[in-house]
Amino acid sequence: MREERGAMARLDDIISARLRQAFARMQAERQRIALRYRAEGEEKARGIRAGADREREVILARAYSTSQRQRGEGDAQATAVTGRAFGQDAGFYAFLRRLETYERIFADGTTTILMRPDSDLLRYLESPRPRR
To answer: 125 phi and psi, to 5 degrees?
Structure first.
C-alpha cells in the first residue's frame, strides 16, 4: 500500500510536471503571438503616422501658397489704390503718408520728439477730434 501511494505520488508529480511544461509552452507561444501582433500594430501605426505627416505637410504647403497668393493680390490692390489716390490728390497722399509715418514712430508709446510750433503734426494733434 505504501508502495502504491509512493507510485501514485510519483505519477502525480510526473503529471503535474508535464502539465506545468505544457502550460509554459502554451504561455510562451501566446507571448510570441502577442509580440507579433504588437509588432504588426506598431508597424501599421508608423505607416498611418507617416501618411498623416505627409498629408499635414501638403496641407500646410497649400495653405502657405494660398496665403502668399492672397497677400500678393492684396498688396497689388493696395498699390493700385495708393496710385489712384496719389494721382487724384498728391497733397492729400503726401499728408496721409506723413500720418502713417507718425503712427509708426509713436507706436511703442516711448518716443519723444521736438516739434516746431508751425509743424503739420502739431496742428493735427491740437485740432479737435471730429465727431463720429
So the answer is: -70, -30
Regarding whether 46 and 30 lie in a shared domain, the answer is: yes
Q: How far apart are CA 120 and CA 104, in angstroms?
A: 16
- Backbone φ and ψ for 75, nearest 5 degrees, come out as -60, -40
Cell 500594430 sits on residue? 41
The count of structural domains within the chain is: 2
Q: Domain range for residue 28?
A: 2-88
Residue 80 in grid coordinates: 493700385
pLDDT per position as a tens digit, 38-63 = 999 999 999 999 999 999 999 999 99
Q: What is the pTM of this model?
A: 0.47
Determine how many CB atoms are found less than 10 A away from the CB of residue 37: 10
Both 55 and 21 in one domain: the answer is yes
Cα gap 101→107, rounded to integer Å: 10
CA atoms in the 13 A half-sphere facing the CB of 73: 6
Q: Are residues 98 and 71 in the same domain?
A: no
List phi, psi (to 5°) of 115: -125, 155
